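Sanity check

After download, print the first record. It should look like this:
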Amino acid sequence: MSNNTVWRLLRHNISAGQIAGYALASFVGLAIVLTAIQFYRDVSSVWNDDDSFISKDYLILSKRVEGVSGLFGRSSASAGNTRFSEQDIADIASRPWVRKVGRFSSASFNVYAKVELGGSSMGSALFLESIPDEFFDVTPKGWTYEPGRSSYVPVILSKDYLSLYNFGFATSRGMPQVSEEVIGMVPLKLSLSGNGRQEWVDARIVGFSSRLNTIAVPEEFMQWANSEFSETPAEAPSRLIVMLDRPGDPQVESYLEEHGYETAGDRADNGKAAFFLSVVTTVVIGVGLIISILAFFILMLSIYLLLQKNRTKIHDLMQLGYSPAQVSRHYHLIVIAVNAGVLLTAMAVMLAASAWWSAPLRALGSEPESAWLTVGTGIGLMLLITLGNLAAITRTIRRSFYA
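Expected structure tokens:
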């Protein structure tokens, strides 16, 4: 008896409705999983942009100031309470939602900045801070300093400061507005004084930060200047920058409230958008996986019922010398064909959905991610499902042969 004859004997009891039901359920589950994964990857590219409304992977922490600290020369206990001790920093770093903690180092000396243009000059007292380079959202060229070798001190300003000048001070005083490129060409001189010494150094604004609300210099410069001009030992930091592992996690807000910590701006609140999106995506993917699992059991139930209907024919085939593998092959072909169709249809839906939301994401200044990773994930999932289907079918038919 040929394979075609075996197929003609078995196919009469195959229910097209059962196969279609499995295919539909499997398609819905896989389409949900792939679309959710691609949506999460595309939207993640938005919050990885530091100008994004949901880019909140960092928190800048300070301690809440109670009453009046340091007024009229009182700077002992109350001022010390606004600084982070080593124990505080270790406790923050141990939180499960924290990836890394960085310290703000402040200038413990006097800083005066002067600009000379067209024969006139203007100046102002400044404050300087530094943090580890890995916490910056910009990496300008020449961001380093070697005492005695570097020709100037690189400076990074907050973008908010430039906006305040252009749209607040300049417009009210009739002064010209300047771009980031222009202000980077303005020569600066910094007066560093303290510990009985004074020195003028050249400086240049090399970048603008959306993340940091400060005037930042390289850590190498800060360490050198503090060692040369500071009259007091280095103090504990009054601000920390925290790289979050789970932005918007509710545990973050409760921890900050419990310890009396404050965050710069609205990063803690806006970070909930990223956390909410990740939770929703996880739930959607979970629903898709559950539907896919249910589809798997639908197929198994259909195969089991089909084998029960063909029980007599299977025994006849066994008597004629056919092996379980020969009989299983026909059911295997059905499953492979159906699963391949499900995979292709689900990927088409995912790609169509990705193309639909790509335009709004580009309007937000973000380029959607490539779909190849999601396609690979779909192929991997369907391969696992298919292997599970084939193994279950083979096992069931073997039992029917030798029952």
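If your output differs, re-run the checksum step. Summary of this record's structure: The first strand starts at residue 58 and ends at 63.
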